[in-house]
Structure formats: structure tokens, C-alpha cells
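From the shared-data thread, chain only:
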Amino acid sequence: MTRLLSVNSYHYERGGSDKVYFAHAALFRDAGWDNAFFSMQHWKNVPSEWSRYFVENIEFGDMKSSAEKLRKSLKVIYSFEAQNKLKLLLDDYRPDVAHVHAAYHHLSPAIMPVLKERGIPSVYTAHDLKLACPAFKMLNSGGICERCRSGNLLNVAIHRCVKDSLSVSAVVAAEAIVHQALRTYRKTLDRVVTPSLFYKAKLEEWGWPAEKLVFIPNFIDVAAAEPSYERGDYLFYLGRLSPEKGLATLVEAVAGSPVPLLIAGTGPEEERLRKLAADLAAPVTFLGHRTGQDLADLVKGALAVVLPSEWYENAPLSVLEAMAAGKVILGADIGGIPELLVRQPPDLLFASGNVAALRGAIDRVTALPASTLSDIGHVNRAFALTFSRTRYRDEMMALYRSLGVAHRD
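Structure, as C-alpha cells:
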């Protein structure tokens, strides 16, 4: 039986990359592969027989003393614990391939040489831009930032690119400088999967060799999404409430609008967004965290799903899932979003971070007749069908085979 080792910082669904981590492993399990996992200890983790190999939890917000912060900061830069725990796992379990999702900071890039030394092919999915930008978002409090492309990674600390904190940014800068000097990622990764063409192009711009990059889109379970082509009566946002998501722009854009906005999600920006909505008397309802059929019904009842991002989004699963539900998408023209909306009318894209442009897109979608909304919804669902489990599995297996990984029953 072919063996897959999946590596990720979190062993619970904290965000989109974690969702892909679990879905990828489940897909290969269903294809007859054996699975093992390597991750970090966390009280929210899904129970796992592999948890005895997981590394100590690192969460800066939970650290109570300066000594603890220093000790765990050194692990972010280079974790000998993660190396040793991974070696123990590999002593007991010899994978045919390792697939790394988000492993920096909490596991540290120090795990990558261990896989190389053991002769295990390694594939890395670029869920974000960490392989180019030390702060992984190419974003700070001043907006989009690509200063480190010059090679001066101290920009991360100078501009406080992580959490707008000098201390945290300095730790991340140190991590990046160490692993740039060691060429950790470049020397150890056999292939990098990019779920969007935008990310593939961006990594090439930052010096990654094209032959190491492979475009394989994410997949969704389209059959599980029951479509609704009826005209909805509200705008809908689902996702994390954090600064890069552009929600302040969205709240300002709906102020004075006859179409209400429903927001499903939680995050650090929630209190500020609630105050902004109240100050502007904007028709916004905050629904908190929603999942399952409740969330699916909210998507189906929407006039349009809005993605107002102000950072280089990759290939958001929320967009694919909304398209599978037959919904129209209003999307910012940034990152990988436009390539997912190529079959919609172009005027449903709007300039990222521009309140007037977003308000114009809202006015345009509101003015569309029910028949046109239905037509766009049908086109979107048909496009979403191409992001299938089968396509993803076949393309990923072809990639693994190119690295000498053979499927064994």
C-alpha cells in the first residue's frame, strides 16, 4: 500500500489550507493509500494516532513569560524538536511521499532537510506566499508590500509586517534570513503546487524556477452543493473577519444600500466592523460562525456572494463553493480571484479597496433581472464542476508519479 505523510501546522480546520490538508489526505485514503500525519499539539486538534509525534504548541498570544517567548521564538527560527519528532515518526513509518501544506513558524522549515536526508520526495502546496514573502501575505498595515523581493528580509521587521508587531516581525525576519542563507526550501522541495495561476506567476517573479512549480487547482465536492438559481434578497460574505479581507470597504459600500449584507464568520476585526456598521447605519447583520446546512442555506438565499479581499488571495474555496451553489460572485480584482470569475460578466469584478467601485458592482448586480442572475448561476455551477475530486486526484497522482512514487495496493 502506498504511504502518504501529510504535514501541516494545525490538525483541525482553522482555515482554508487546513481544510485542504484534511481533504487531500481523505481523497488518497479513498484511493487506497495509507495515511500518516505530522502537526502541532493543540487542544482543538482532531484525535489522531500520530499525535504522539506532534510538536509542542506555539501560540505567541498564549505565552505568559519572556523566557517562554524566547524559547518558542527560537523554535520558530529553527526547531530541533520538530526535526527530532519527525525523525522518530519516520523511524516507525516510511512514507513514499510527503505532502507539506502550512508548516512554517509552528513546525519551522527545519523539518524539510529531514525528509531530504531520508530520500522522501516532498511536495509543498503554496496556500499562501510564504515561499517568497517571509510574512506570507505580501501585506502589512500600509497595504500590499513586495519590498523583500529586493533580498533585504529585514523589511519584515522594519515595516512590522506580522501582526503590526516589531517583536513578532523580528522573529519571522530572523526565520526567513536563516533559511534563505541555508536555501532550505530551494534545496529540499521537489515540487511546489500552486492552486492559482496567479501564485505560480508570482513565485516565478520572485525567482522560483518554473520547472519546480505545478498548477493544480483545489477541488470541492460539487455534488454535495445543492444549487439554487432563485433571486436572493441579500448580499453575503463568509469567512474570517480580518483586515486583509476588505470588510471595512464592504461595510462602507453597503451603507445607504437597500440591499442588506449578512456576514458569517468571526475574527479580530469583528468589534471594529460592528462599530463601523453602527456609525454608518449600514444594513449589516453579523451572524457569527456558521457551518453545515445552516451555512449552505445562507449561501443559497443570497443575491450574490461578495469577496472584497485586499491582499493577494490564492484560490478561495468559498468562491468555488458559492459557484457550485449557483450563485453570482462579486469579486475584487486582486490575486487569484479574477481567474475564478472568467465566465461571469466582467463588470462584476471591482477594484480592490475601492468603496465606490464596490458600490457600483453592488448596484449593477442588484439591477440584474432574475433570469440573468439564474443564467450566471448556471454558468458558475458548470465551471465549478470542473474543480472535481477526480481531476485533482489524477493531476496530483501524475505529479507524484513524476517523482518516482508508484501506486501500490
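The first helix runs from residue 16 to 30.
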